[in-house]
Amino acid sequence: MARSPSKTRAHRTSRGPRPLTPEEEAVYDADEAGLDDEERADMEALHAGLADGSIVSIMTPALQAETQARARATLEVLKPTKRITVRISPVDLQTLQQKAQELGLPYQTLLKSVIHQYLTGQLVPRPSAV
Q1: Which residues of 60-79 are buried (b: 16+ CB within 10 A; e: fewer)?
Q2: What number of other Cβ atoms are within 10 A of residue 10's Cβ?
């Protein structure tokens, strides 16, 4: 739902009101697209609070830089993966699928996680019982 030109949004910061960037406007518009009437009213109240100063953003330039750095690091980790083929015994595959189901994960995701944890030293073999 596009916002009418008469309604503008702004964030009130410690240095006064700041208009939203086009990216921030797009996020608000996308968020509002699937809202029911009650949710839309809540969003309008939030926007009004940000505009009139009754709700103040705590996003400082330093916090914004830190947030963006963390987002970039997350995206780096989530880069596209490479497809491989692995031969595994039917019993091991069934056990893997059962464990994944218990955790609420696809079994490929569980397998990828176990491999990653092992390679990064977060998962180590159990010492053998003597």
Answers
A1: eeeeeeeeeeeeeeeeeeee
A2: 17
Q: Output the CA–CA distances (angstroms, integers) from residue 32 to 9, 27, 28, 76, 119, in the order listed.
A: 14, 9, 6, 29, 42
Task: Tell me the pLDDT tens digit for each residue of 18-42.
Answer: 677 776 676 666 556 677 888 888 8
CA distance 33 to 2: 9
Question: 């916090």: which residue's tokens?
Answer: 63
Query: 80-125: which CATH architecture?
Result: Orthogonal Bundle (1.10)
For the chain, give every domain's residue range.
10-77, 80-125
Q: Is 24 helix (H, G, I), strand (E, B) or coil?
A: helix
Note the pLDDT tens digit of each residue in 93-105: 999 999 999 888 8
Q: Is the dihedral of CA 51, 57, 60, 64 positive or negative?
A: negative
